Amino acid sequence: MKVIKKNPYNISNDAAFHSNSQNIDKLPKINITQLEILEECILENAPNLWKNHSNLTIITADACRSVDNVPIHEACIVLYCLSKGFVPLSEELFPKELSCLRGKFKTDIREGYFILGPINMYGNLDSYNDPICMGSNIGAKDGRTCGSVGLFVDLPNNAKGFITCCHVLRNCITAETHKYDTDDGDEPIQVQQPGNSAFCGRTDTICAELKKAKFTPNVPRVSVDAALVKLNSRIPGTGHFVIKNITQAEEAGYSQNAYPVYSSGVVHRSIGEDDIEKPLLKSGTSTGLTRSLFRLRGSQVRIFPNGAWLGTNGENLIVMKGQYEVESCNVSKPFFSAGDSGSAVFLKEPNGQLACIGIAIGMTSYHTTVVTPIGSVLDALELSDEDVTRFGT
Predict the structure, then answer these.
(1) For residue 132, what is the domain's CATH number?
(2) Total count of domains within the chain
(3) In which domain of life is the source organism classified (predicted)?
């Protein structure tokens, strides 16, 4: 018997080829009907797949699959694992096809994984923002990681707050409880901007406090990793974004005299057929203003706590279900990188208006970004669409 030890981060590049080809505009697209059926098929088959395959990391879909490294333009369900050809003891091979009531799809097996997107506080530099902007760098006082300000919301008593990811501000993966709420007696967690005050040379970095957080993996439909933060100072009067340089604004269709602003408070709880081809924008503390295209809804991704890569399946899994996947418009410029967790993702309408579709939580090894639908985020934090801030009204 030969035992082979493999670094799980050392994976084949076939997945990245499919997702981020230089000919991305020429790749086939999945239409809305196929999206709906693929989403149903993933939802129906995922429980057994997670239960029976400890090597499984992501369940998603694609408009093409490969046979002997030759791309076939055919919608399929993609099963990502850490090591192709490695079959854990007493487990079966991945199925060659999956079916649901409305359809049947072949599977494509690829190597890849998902990771959350905070950044180590001690490796992060970011500026002091007054007022706070969407994309500003934030972190918990005495915390170890930083992330990004997402969506601004209105709170009771004329207060203002914002949404970010739960994992940015507390260790929700290994916490005894995945729910946090100061209204239920939890101790307030102070939030500062930038996330590490030592780097900006100021003593007034604390500007907010965590009010509520939800981390809900393994739920039947849509998992949420979200936090509601109340601002106590540096409150914004406009919906401006963090932008690293003028080039970013120009590439997104803006100019130095007309930067993007999100003031309407419009949210899209679902992605329709007319939305699939529209560009997406986000502003994060690491990458600034970046562009992407919608790829898929209904993806399921597995989180591996503390580097425990293999040997777990069934009830002990941590799986984020019902997620969107989006892919960068430019293969040389990532849409998302470590530190962008919590950033809001916006759909850009033909008239220039922005509508929020979700909150970015992490990235895959094949360079797509995983986004939680905004409707599920608002519901989990007990907010309505009307609570999203409408500046200037």
Answers:
(1) 2.40.10.10
(2) 2
(3) Eukaryota
DSSP assignment of 187-251 equals: PPEEEESSS-GGGTT-S--EEEEEEEEEE-TT-SS---EEEEEEE-SS--SS-BB--S-HHHHHH
Establish whether the linkage from the previous residue to 194 is cis, with ω within 30° of 0: yes
203, burial (CB in 10 Å: exposed 0-12, middle 13-18, buried 19+): exposed
The arithmetic mean of pLDDT across residues 53-63, rounded, is 94
> What domain range includes position 50?
14-112
Q: What DSSP designation does 269 have?
A: S
Q: What is the pLDDT of residues 212-225, one digit of tens each?
A: 999 999 999 999 99
In 24-158, at which residue ranges do the beta strands (DSSP E only) sit?
56-62, 65-67, 70-72, 76-81, 97-100, 103-111, 114-116, 119-120, 137-140, 145-148, 152-155
Global pTM value: 0.92
Q: What stretch of H or E contains 164?
A: strand 159-164
Residue where one domain finishes, among candidates 96, 112, 128:
112
How far, in Å, CA of 336 to CA of 346, rounded? 13
- d(CA 155, CA 169) in angstroms, rounded, equals 19
